[in-house]
Design a protein that fits this description.
globular; 228 residues; single chain; eleven-stranded antiparallel beta sheet; 4 helices
């Protein structure tokens, strides 16, 4: 077992489904398999959903298959989701787990009162650096291998707001410039900013994380704090 930093380059240890599934079950979310060979988890109040959709291979972000989709509704009987967030394989499961804990604690998962500055403030508190050209929308880690940015939404990102040209938070890790991404995440336009901030703050945490395997693409960028 390795304990490594930084978290945003640690990968998912090949355990993204199991770790997040355990978190959701621990929070009391109900789970059942679907006809698409996916695993759907629903919160006790019926307002939030989390679906392991890797087997369905719905689409890719940055050339990587989407593995988890989070969603929220304004009321449990609603067919339409208010917002969606998507995470590919390789995303550090700690960041997604921390986001889910915050989401589960909210009474109204589709309502937010914080502005986009709360995301950048959370990253700045962890030592991430605002982009010189886009200081109000983008921040990167000190090694410039990972970024969180308010960008035009990629195709197939679903949201209750149908207007074209909207922006949503995007996050990614690119251990080597020009090389394939390690992971990507996309938040639709209506995701409350404080939820994105919870993900971003956990992503940028300096605390070491345990891994049995390390991503090859991050070789030389990871620091092994200790072995156990």
């Amino acid at each position: 077992m390795y304990w490594v930093t930084p978290r945003h380059l640690a990968g998912d240890d090949g355990a993204l489904a199991e770790r997040i599934g355990d978190i959701l079950v621990g929070l009391g979310w109900r789970m059942w398999p679907t006809s698409r060979h996916t695993l759907l988890y629903v919160s006790p109040d019926g307002l939030c959903g989390a679906e392991w959709i890797l087997a369905a291979y719905p689409f890719e972000l940055g050339g990587l298959p989407v593995a988890w989709q989070l969603s929220a509704r304004s009321h449990s009987a609603s067919v339409m989701t208010e917002w969606n967030a998507y995470f590919t394989t390789g995303v550090p499961y700690e960041a997604l787990a921390d986001l889910l804990v915050v989401l589960d604690a909210r009474d109204a998962p589709n309502v937010g009162f914080e502005g986009p500055e709360t995301v950048l403030t959370a990253l700045g508190a962890r030592g991430w650096i605002r982009d010189v050209d886009r200081p109000r929308t983008t921040a990167s880690d000190p090694g410039f291998s990972s970024s969180v940015s308010l960008e035009m939404l990629p195709p197939l990102i679903q949201d209750a707001d149908p207007r074209p040209g909207l922006v949503g938070w995007q996050a990614w890790a690119e251990p080597v410039l020009g090389a394939p991404y390690l992971w990507c995440a996309s938040f639709s336009v209506s995701v409350p900013h404080d939820l994105v901030a919870a993900f971003a703050s956990s992503l940028a945490s300096p605390d070491p994380v345990p891994r049995r395997t390390l991503p090859e693409s991050a070789e030389g960028r990871l620091t092994v704090v200790r072995r156990s």
